[in-house]
Amino acid sequence: MKYMLLIWNRPGFTEELTERERTALFGEVDEIMKELTESGELVGGQALADPSQTQTVRLAGGHPEVIDGPFMESKEQFAGYLTVDCDSPQRAAEIAARWPDVRFGGALEVRPIMDEAGTEM
């Protein structure tokens, strides 16, 4: 089963870290990615650009309107994602629990990916 691990973290939290802490954090991410690649569980993933680069489309006055930024009242931002293919939701949650952003106030949302038919949900 494939799972999307949605990475949420506090904007700017890496800037609060020392260079040594940042290097360690990114080293942990690299190690997890290497392990998932070697095990065949990694399907893909990407970090997202800063929210200041974002546009949001919402319905306004009956028509779609494009506005700059997400500008939601939130302490967390959607920062990236991983897609993994693993045997169980427990394994997907285990991978998410190892993600270092969690230790710095972030969160990973583990969500099953529906097949095209969507009948498994």
Brief account:
This protein is of the alpha+beta class and 121 residues long.
What would your notes on this structure say?
The protein has helices at 19-39, 89-98, and strands at residues 2-9, 42-47, 55-60, 63-68, 77-85, 107-112. The strands form two sheets. Strands 2-5-1-6 form a four-stranded antiparallel β-sheet, with helices on one face. The chain has a single domain, classed as Alpha-Beta Plaits (2-Layer Sandwich), CATH 3.30.70. It is flat and about 50 Å long. It is α+β, with helices and mostly antiparallel strands and 121 residues long. The longest helix is centred in the first third of the chain and has 21 residues, at 19-39.
Feature tags:
single chain, two-stranded antiparallel ribbon, Alpha-Beta Plaits, 121 residues, alpha+beta, 26% helix, four-stranded antiparallel beta sheet, 2 helices
